[in-house]
Amino acid sequence: MYTTDTAEDRTRALERIRDLLAGGRTVVIPTDTVYGIAADAFSPGAVSQLLAAKGRSRTMPPPVLIADPGVLDALAETVPATGRALAERFWPGALTLIVRAQPSLNWDLGETRGTVALRVPADELTRELLRATGPLAVSSANRTGQTAATDAVEAMAQLGERVEAILDGGRRPLGRDEQTPSMEVAPSTIIDVTGDRPVVVRTGALDLALLRETAPDLLTREEHERILRDEDSARGADGSPDPAEDSRPGTEGQDAEDSAADGADAAPVTGGPGEGPRAGAPEPGSLTQRLLGTGNPSSGPAVDQLRTREAAAAGSAAGSAPAGQRVDPLPVERARALFFDPSARD
Question: Is residue 247 part of a domain?
Answer without folding.
Answer: no
